[in-house]
Amino acid sequence: MNNLVVVSNRIARAKANEPMTGGLAAALLPVVEKNGAIWVGSSGRLSDNQSAPSIELESLGRGTLALLDLPAAHYGGYYQGFANSALWPALHSRSDLIRASADDYRSYREVNAFVAEALMRFRKSDTVYWIQDYHFLALGAELRHLGAVEPIGFFLHTPWPASSIAARIPNHRQLIESMLAYDLIGFQTDDDCRNFAEYIRRELGLEIDDGVVTSRFGLSRLAVFPIGIDVDGFASMAARAITHPDVSRLRLSLRGEALAIGVDRVDYSKGLVNRLCAFDRLLTQHPSLKRAISLLQIATPSRGEIEAYERLQAELATLVTDLNGRHGEVDWTPIRYLNKGYGQSVLAGFYRSAQIGLVTPLQDGMNLVAKEYVAAQNPEDPGVLVLSRYAGAANELDAALIVNPSDVDAMARAMHTALTMSILERRERWVAMMAKLRAHTIHQWFADFVSALEEAPTRRAFVDLEPSLVPPAGAAASGNARVH
Ligand code: G6P
Predict the structure, then answer these.
(1) CATH assignment, 231-439
(2) What is the C-alpha to C-alpha distance for residues 468 and 189, in angstroms, rounded to an integer?
């Protein structure tokens, strides 16, 4: 393999027993450990020195972590601002939540340029760069400006929305055109890839032939690489986890009661409000289920400095209190609601202890919790996955009980169906899902993307080309100035 440099905002230094937020870092950890890439990401510390990136190296199995202090002056505008208050809501089709200033965009571009400078330190003649996720849409363009001609790939872990929504992102043309500096742009699903292609045609007026966009920057291939998990590794971790003290305590406390489990970051894309309402509906419609089922909802705090997240956190706390107050008994609490994170190995044991896995996002790139829940099950007595059709995972896991997360009644019915499903049907569905998971593991995902990227032809650097010369449709060119 070439000298591979992987880049993501958040990296995982964590071992299996430490909490991790988000699927991306958890997914990349085992492949970097095994394949030996350099994984560059934020150290979590900020630096006042904007011109000279400080990098700390740590080893991670066969790979290396390169921890970068990001510039303090731009971090807020980049992370809380443009990345998580403009791009994240837009990518999850919540254009009503887009809030970002021109300064936020400037900071986003500054941080992308800063990381590009840092990456040049790892550049060798056979380097290939693989950039992850929406924090770094413009990083490839910044690398080309610094003279990089090597293959640069990009993978989006989130969905890509309809072009009418993407067009609501501030500075969308400049930003999305800059993505064409990438040789390979990977998506989770066909829908995401199609939506992106439609944006490129409609808003940028470019042709796409057989999945390849031709722009003045060169050729960019669009392709789909559904991310997977280490199926057998996760399954054996789940079997072992049964003896973990947290898992044993959970099992003991159930006293034969069935358990439904949800594990999510507190994020409006995860559909938590509707899920709680559906559980409420289930208990209201089937009072006999009191003491027969409870819900363990792990809701890991996330991006709490952003107002939409803070509001959601408060709304969920109110809903849980209200539901527990109405349905609870002196010796029984319907929802165990936990605002903290758990390590992968404990989660694996929790999943195996739950008869129902609830993965009901309103919109999700893939959702690896769905895959992990399935892999963690006891083959003799597997639980049932209730899965939103709007999670990327639903494309493969079509043997789950597929639900519309906006239809609270239908979700309550699905939970009831899951609870009463025969063991024969549970096994059949589980076997079908495991076969799908084995066909697309995380190792396969990694190998497929890297080999497609290594095939990319060498580009020329575009030191002489401004990233955004595409005029807004029907208007004179505006907003073309480079932002730093
Ligand atoms: C999602 C994103 C990741 C992100 C994770 C956690 O999975 O796709 O890029 O790292 O959420 O979010 P955070 O803002 O805590 O990094």
Answers:
(1) 3.40.50.2000
(2) 27
Helices in 132-286 by DSSP H: which ranges?
139-145, 163-166, 172-178, 190-204, 231-241, 245-254, 272-285
Q: Note the CATH architecture for domain 3-227+443-467.
A: 3-Layer(aba) Sandwich (3.40)
Domain with CATH 3.40.50.2000 in the chain: 3-227+443-467, 231-439
How many angstroms separate the alpha carbon of residue 135 from the centre of ligand 1? 9
- pLDDT tens digits for 18-63? 777 678 998 899 899 999 999 999 999 999 987 778 999 999 999 9
Q: Of the given ranges (109-123, 182-196, 372-386, 450-464), which has the lowest mean pLDDT?
A: 450-464
Kind and range of the H or E element at 58? strand 55-60
Residue 295: closest CA among 426, 377, 399, 415: 415
Residue owning the nearest CA to atom 12 of ligand 1: 22
Residues marked active site are found at 157, 364
User: Which tokens in the block code for residue 209?
Assistant: 């032939």
For residue 371 the two structure tokens come to 């895959």
| Closest to 332 in 3D by CA, of 247, 253, 273 | 253
